[in-house]
From TrEMBL:
Pfam families: PseudoU_synth_2, S4. Residues 2-65 form the RNA-binding S4 domain. Belongs to the pseudouridine synthase RsuA family. It comes from Bacillus salipaludis. Gene3D superfamilies: Alpha-L RNA-binding motif (3.30.70.1560), Pseudouridine synthase I, catalytic domain, N-terminal subdomain (3.30.70.580), RNA-binding S4 domain (3.10.290.10). SUPFAM superfamilies: Alpha-L RNA-binding motif (SSF55174), Pseudouridine synthase (SSF55120). This is Pseudouridine synthase.
Length: 245
């Protein structure tokens, strides 16, 4: 027996939190009866419907995608632009991205149909490091990079401390390559952090997520995570969560 919201999340319908909202809104039925109270447990033989559609109990799948620039981190786009799930048309599972990368940002993105797993990784408490490499307009001053390391105030609050390393600087072109590691996931956060110190980001790539890298992949290519990698990610998120509680 498993909690209803966990079953819905595992089917790839929504995250655990969103699944709870669907239940509260009366959009979920179990064996033909509307359920609005959280905490109900169901067995594999129970018929579960969301928005009048019976859910299929899919096996969980986990992918790592090297997202190219110019692709939306979503399952669909009302403007008809390319979305990350377009790279997985050969799979029947209803996968969705874990978090997002901006349209103009390339790099490592996870996708799954396991809502509980996605929710665990995205929870603010579970501070998994994400490493980006940015090409900036202008060469950031050392004292300004230190501001990013300590946390810098943006319009939506002060950022958590970051790890920052100046990899190279081209004095002739007045550009720089900077590596930055953050664990938050605010909208366009890295770009806004550099803008706050006076440096526009010309190119941005996420090169690492926790211990995962893009090794062996070209832009637009993907691979399945191994069971050990999935287990490691769960352990990493839960370990950090315990330290922060």
């Amino acid at each position: 027996m498993e909690r209803l919201q966990k079953v819905i999340a595992r089917a790839g319908i929504a995250s655990r939190r969103k699944s709870e909202e669907l239940i509260k809104e009366g959009r979920v039925k179990v064996n033909g009866k509307v359920v609005t109270e959280l905490g109900m447990k169901v067995s594999p033989s129970d018929k579960v419907e969301v928005n009048e559609i019976q859910i299929e109990k899919e096996e969980p799948v986990y992918f790592l995608l090297y997202k190219p620039r110019g692709v939306i981190s979503s399952v669909n786009d009302d403007k008809g632009r390319k979305v990350v799930t377009d790279f997985f048309s050969q799979f029947k599972e209803r996968i969705f991205p874990v978090g997002r990368l901006d349209y103009d940002t390339s790099g490592l993105l996870l996708l799954t149909n396991d809502g509980e797993f996605a929710n665990l990784l995205m929870h603010p408490k579970n501070e998994i490091d994400k490493v980006y490499v940015a090409k900036t307009k202008g060469i950031p001053l050392r004292e300004n990079l230190r501001k990013l390391e300590k946390g810098i105030r943006l319009e939506d609050g002060k950022t958590a401390p970051a790890k920052v390393k100046l990899l190279s600087a081209d004095k002739k072109k007045q550009t720089a390559i900077v590596e930055i590691a953050i664990h938050e996931g605010r909208n366009r956060q890295v770009r806004r952090m550099f803008e706050a110190i006076g440096n526009e980001v010309l190119k941005l790539k996420r090169e690492r997520y926790g211990f995962l890298t893009l090794n062996g992949l070209k832009a637009g290519e993907a691979r399945e995570l191994t069971p050990h990698e999935v287990k490691q990610l769960r352990a990493l998120a839960m370990d950090v969560s315990k330290k922060n509680s």
